[in-house]
Amino acid sequence: MIADSVRTIWCRELQRDDILADDDFFALGGQSVIMARIQGAFIDELGVEVPIDQMFLNPTVASISAYIESLGTVSQ
Fold first, then answer.
1. Is 42 in contact with 8 (CB distance < 8 Å)?
2. Residues 6+ away with beta carbon under 8 Å from 2
3. For residue range 16-45, what is the model confidence (pLDDT) as tens digits?
4. What is the distance between the alpha carbons of residues 29 and 69, in angstroms, rounded to a whole number?
5. What is the pLDDT of residues 48-64, one digit of tens each?
6. What integer pLDDT is reported at residue 74 of this predicted model?
7. DSSP character at residue 63
8. How buried is 29 (Cβ within 10 angstroms: 0-12 exposed, 13-18 middle, 19+ buried)?
9. Are the CB atoms for 19 and 61 separated by under 8 Å?
10. What's the pTM value of the predicted model, to 2 decimals?
11. Which one-letter DSSP state was computed for residue 17?
């Protein structure tokens, strides 16, 4: 499931293990540098390139996972 992979990446990059599907990236302490690392992890681990503007528009695990699923190009 993509949401599980996204949550794992977010937990690792934000150094937290308590992230829920609807938690806001920025409220969790997310910054642009961390967002760039997550963007790279999406490419490396999911095989999908997520534009940075979509990451700003989809600041939760649930919303960015839905966006990634809508692309239909994830390799897991």
1. no
2. 46, 65, 68, 69, 74, 76
3. 999 999 999 999 999 999 999 999 999 999
4. 25
5. 999 999 999 999 999 99
6. 64
7. H
8. exposed
9. yes
10. 0.90
11. S
Give the residue among 33, 32, 24, 30 at the shortest CA–CA distance from 58. 24
Q: Return the HEC string of 26-60.
A: CCCCCCHHHHHHHHHHHHHHHCCCCCHHHHHHCCE
- CA-CA distance, 28 to 71, in Å (whole number)? 26
Burial of 62 (0-12, 13-18, 19+ CB in 10 A): middle
Structure tokens at 62: 């649930």
